Fold:
Amino acid sequence: MDVSVTAPRGFSLSQLQVKLSLLDSSNTPVASRTLNAASDFTATLDASTLTDGTYQLQAQLLSVPPCSPTPLLPTPSSKLPPRPAPQ
Structure:
């Protein structure tokens, strides 16, 4: 797919990443890829192992601070895996 990115005010393209995710019918990511942002680039996402069905493509624009990416745009809430039971 072709992707175009315009950096928000206060950011440069080198500070940004694009995360592409395919979500199944329960909004669970089944494939994803994070790429460095550029003003215009082609991205691929391998869906060859997925079964036939309907999937939603989600794109997120992330900042790249020293510690971890932070979403710049609102995204749907994701489900966190349950914590392991204490042993």
Observations:
- The CA atoms of residues 17 and 85 lie 35 Å apart.
